[in-house]
Design brief:
Elements (H helix, E strand, L loop, with lengths): L1 H17 L8 H12 L3 H7 L2 H12 L2 H9 L4 H7 L1 H17 L21 H7 L9 E2 L5 E2 L2 H12 L4 E5 L4 E3 L2 E10 L2 E11 L6 H17 L11 H11 E8 L5 E7 L8 E3 L2
Antiparallel strand pairs: 1-2, 3-5, 4-5, 5-6, 7-8, 7-9
Helix pairs in contact: 1-2, 8-9
């Protein structure tokens, strides 16, 4: 089924490149058509398409962006269209040069990519630090009820276990952008040995905040790679999650000060909800 969607995706891309009517189509419309065709396999398929083909596709529609934006400004919902137009600007002006500059910066992408993997256990003092119970005071909860450990806590645990300079997060490929989600593959090495590999992701809200989103993407990859070392493994244990919520959290009704909507959200006991949410008494 995945191969079938891939074929449809490539055919659709080719038809858009050849179509004369598509010259009047802005980037946002083109991307939407491709995403509807690729369905859930879109992120993978976008990486399978040759970079020069995607560059040709972007260049083909670049000339129509100004005309399309003027047309959209006269239509209802112009504010939403303006927000969506940030996506093509990210692709054309920021991401493409970024990927090009990163094309020669991949490390450990050869025969030594998995050097030292599963050859021997780490020393006991290191293991004791990695597998230590987490401090409940360090755990945070998102409004939707998801427990998490701040990214800096993972770095501190790794620094205590392996010392600064004894571990590194290595990029495995360039950044990729799917919709408004930027992602990149990273591998974690400790004492020069491969430990784990994961793709980090972060939503991009504005092209001006792209550097911040890139850093968030790296932090997300570190969190995922650290799971294989057993760091904060309790956060994936249903029994721990239920007990922590019962002992340290509250489920409260809140009102959105900007929209006026109501919802039931999670927070730590004694903590306050962040704007725009206000707890209802």
């Amino acid at each position: 089924m995945g191969c079938y969607r891939c074929v449809l995706f490539v055919r659709k891309l080719g038809s858009l490149l050849r179509s004369t009517t598509s010259q009047m189509m802005n980037h946002t419309t083109a991307v939407r058509m491709l995403m509807r065709t690729a369905a859930p396999s879109a992120p993978l398929m976008l990486r399978l398409v040759r970079p020069d083909v995607m560059a040709a596709f972007a260049a083909r529609h670049a000339s129509s962006t100004a005309t399309a934006s003027k047309t959209n400004s006269n239509m209802s919902g112009a504010a939403d269209a303006s927000t969506m137009d940030k996506l093509p600007r990210l692709i054309d002006q920021t991401l493409s040069p970024l990927v090009a500059s990163e094309s020669q910066t991949f490390h450990r992408d050869g025969p030594d990519a998995f050097v030292g993997m599963a050859t021997e256990a780490f020393p006991d003092p290191v293991v004791d630090i990695l597998l230590a119970d987490i401090n409940p005071d360090d755990v945070e909860i998102k409004p939707d009820g998801l427990l998490y450990l701040p990214e800096i806590k993972y770095r501190r645990i790794l620094n205590r276990a392996f010392k600064p300079g004894g571990w590194a997060l290595v990029p495995r490929g360039p950044h990729s952008l799917t919709g408004r989600m930027i992602s990149r593959e990273y591998a974690l090495y400790c004492y020069g040995r491969f430990v784990s590999q994961a793709r980090g992701e972060q939503e991009v809200f504005d092209e001006k905040l792209l550097p911040t989103a890139i850093e968030g993407c790296k932090s997300n990859a570190l969190l995922r790679c650290s799971k294989d070392l057993g760091i904060a493994s309790e956060l994936w244990d249903p029994s721990f999650i239920r007990k922590f919520k019962a002992d340290h959290c509250e489920h409260v009704w809140a009102k959105n000060a900007a929209r006026g909507t109501k919802s039931k959200l999670w927070r730590l006991k004694g903590a306050r909800l962040e704007y725009p949410w206000e707890e209802m008494r």
